[in-house]
Amino acid sequence: EVQLLESGGGLVQPGGSLRLSCAASGFNFNAYAMSWVRQAPGKGLEWVSGISSASTTYSADSLKGRFTISRDNPKNTVYLQMSSLRAEDTAVYYCASWRGHYFDFWGQGTLVTVSS
Amino acid sequence: EIVLTQSPGTLSLSPGERATLSCRASQSVSSNYLAWYLQKPGQAPRLLIYGASSRATGIPDRFSGSGSGTDFTLTISRLEPEDFAVYYCQHYGGSPVFTFGPGTKVDI
User: Fold this and answer.
1) Can you tell me the distance from the alpha carbon of B89 to that of B72, in angstroms, rounded to the nearest whole number?
2) pLDDT-derived band of residue A103, with 50, 70 and 90 as boundaries?
């Protein structure tokens, strides 16, 4: 069974940093691209960042320079390093396995709240 | 950049009824790059349909997707109680760029 378990969310002050983790199991993690998708409270879905199986990284244009995705294949884990956080970054952040044109499995999400 | 519009915003139906959800793209897109997700309250989204019409693993055949060009449809042939949720369409625009529609809420 595929499982994606996010962690690392919490309350952070504006301008602060946070690193999210997503531990994967139940599939060949090394062979899969992974992504982060976020959802602000009461809002829709927004793609944040993705990383290929070869560790090529991609980010939404609106977030470039502030968020960095990475992966540790031996640990079956993907990370999202977030810096210069703003109130508008407040959201549930989902980790998802990325199958080319869509996201086939999703974690339960971790809430990031940016507030003073 | 492709913009996705979903209609209606809310669809009020009863169990057993047929639901027809629309997703319209601001310009013609490849049907290979259109997916649908379901999200229940407090839960993560779940992939329903990819490539406009292919059901994801484990998705019951009451869910079907169709369409091409700018107009795509998700049909639920007979609503079950667990189908009342928010449905999102999503387009892959290369580069990569992923765009989600604003969602359609199906409620009782």
Assistant:
1) 9
2) very high
How far apart (Å, rounded) are the C-alpha atoms in residues B14 and B39?
Answer: 18
Enumerate the residues of chain B whose CB falls inside 8 A of the CB of residue A99: 50
pLDDT of residue A66: 96
Residue type, B89: C
Side by side, which strands form the sheet with A18-25? A3-7, A18-25, A77-82, A67-72
Asked if B93 reaches chain A (Cβ–Cβ under 8 Å), the answer is no
The answer to whether B90 contacts chain A (CB < 8 Å) is yes
pLDDT at residue number B96? 86
Q: Which residue in the set B44, B95, B97 is minimally distant from A106, CB to CB?
A: B44
SS3 A9: coil
| Backbone Cα Rg of chain B | 13
